[in-house]
Amino acid sequence: MMTKSHLRGLLPLLLLSPLSIALADGRTAQIAITGDAAPDGNGVLGVNMGTPVLNNSGELLFTNLMTGTTGGSTDNLVLLRYSAVTVSQIMREPEPAPDGNGTIFTFNTDYQLNDSGLAAFRGSLTGTAGGFSDDSGLFTGSGGALTQVAREGQSDPNGNGVISSFNDELSLNAAGRVAFEAFFTGTSGGTTDDNGIYAGSGGSLT
Fold first, then answer.
1. Are the CB atoms for 125 and 137 separated by under 8 Å?
2. Which residues have a Cβ under 8 Å from the Cβ of 55 and sit 6 or more positions away?
């Protein structure tokens, strides 16, 4: 899982450059630039704009380390979506976990965006009941409340062990289902059956 210090090293892929998108008619449109106001009014966009993800609807998902926020380094990491002429906020640290167990304070850089504008990402949490045993999860959101897809400490659908960690990469389809690789502890076969591929959208995993 990337920490904020890691993100500060990765996000400057677009350092000091406005974030732009190529339009179907060949023109280029500016999406965001350093100094733009945050969608919620708390701070402005910083120079660190993360690698953008583009969907087939022309929407774009990107991260930013904002400046001038009320919480400083505790609320400056944000996941944003551009749609038409509007930039909206998908999530911002510190974001309460959907189940109330902990607070999301950072997320992995392998975020995804489907054609309906739904974003998926893996987040790290603090203040969880289980400490290191439940401090990572997979989430989706489109600008309102987040949905928890899977979480460390969650039982295998067949009852064979509990999730101990996730692979960095995930996939999101048009129906909003997230596919991912999970690793388990407490399985009957030990290292012979401690990982698998699963899918979910907020209910039971398959």
1. yes
2. 61, 113, 114, 115, 117
Question: Which of 124, 123, 113 minimizes the C-alpha distance to 176?
Answer: 113
Report pTM.
0.86
Tokens read off for 110: 């392998």
Q: What tokens were used for 142?
A: 């489109």
Query: Taking the mean position of all CA atoms in its chain, how far away is CA 175?
Result: 18
What are the φ/ψ torsions at residue 77 (nearest 5 degrees)? -95, 125
CB contact at 8 A, 125 and 103? yes
DSSP 44: B
Residue 114 burial (CB < 10 Å; 0-12/13-18/19+)? buried
pLDDT band, very low/low/confident/very high, at 18 (cuts 50, 70, 90): low
Is residue 175 packed enough to be buried (19+ CB in 10 Å), middle (13-18) or exposed (0-12)?
exposed
Strands (E), the chain: 19-22, 28-32, 53-54, 60-65, 77-83, 86-92, 95-96, 103-107, 112-113, 119-126, 136-141, 147-151, 162-172, 178-185, 195-200
> What digits encode the pLDDT tens for the residues 138-166?
999 999 999 999 999 999 998 999 999 99
Residue 41's pLDDT is what?
Answer: 93
* CB-based contact 98:201 (threshold 8 Å): no
Token code pair at residue 171: 């996939």
Residue 58's pLDDT is what?
86
